[in-house]
Design goal:
Distance between the termini: 144 Å
Number of strands: 0
Length: 171
């Protein structure tokens, strides 16, 4: 940024360039010499006084005065635009995060429902497994009974066969 403008120093330079003294300037702007001497020490002038001096010397002091501020305003405008852009990006990111959060919540609800469904299916399968095990145990028991019956029948068959053989040999 440019060096800050000191209005009193600028007035001093204009007076020197035009070969004017404090009395000349005071008379032409309608102020006292004391006022002009105080102005030479001031960094800034009030707008009315700035316009009087500008007209007296026919120079655009006002534009010189605000030129440095124009640069500062341009920098601030750029900074504000960057902030606006950043805010827009952050807002978009926030909206995306909100949408993702909403979707994640929906997915969590679906996952929970699926879990409950699978839990119920598992419980049903576990009950069916218990019934199947009981049937297998019952069938194993029946098989053992039938095997024992077959063994018993074979033993009886052997006994009968021996009895018939003895009967045939006696007859």
């Amino acid at each position: 940024m440019k060096k800050e403008i000191h209005m009193g120093e600028q007035l001093q330079e204009l007076m020197y360039a035009r070969k004017m003294n404090v009395s000349d300037v005071a008379t032409k702007i309608g102020r006292s010499e004391l006022t002009v001497r105080r102005m030479l020490k001031r960094k800034h002038f009030q707008l009315g006084m700035l316009l009087r001096v500008s007209r007296l010397f026919d120079v655009p002091l006002l534009s010189n005065y605000v030129q440095g501020y124009d640069e500062q305003l341009e920098q601030e405008r750029k900074a504000n635009q960057q902030l606006k852009n950043t805010t827009t990006v952050l807002k978009e990111q926030l909206e995306t995060a909100y949408a993702n959060t909403h979707q994640a919540k929906a997915n969590a609800i679906l996952a929970e429902e699926k879990y409950e469904e699978l839990q119920l299916k598992f419980t049903q399968l576990e009950a069916e497994h218990e019934q199947t095990l009981k049937q297998v145990q019952r069938l194993q028991h029946e098989l053992e009974l039938q095997q024992n019956t077959i063994i018993h029948l074979r033993e009886m068959n052997d006994v009968l066969t021996q009895a018939v053989t003895k009967t045939d040999s006696v007859s």
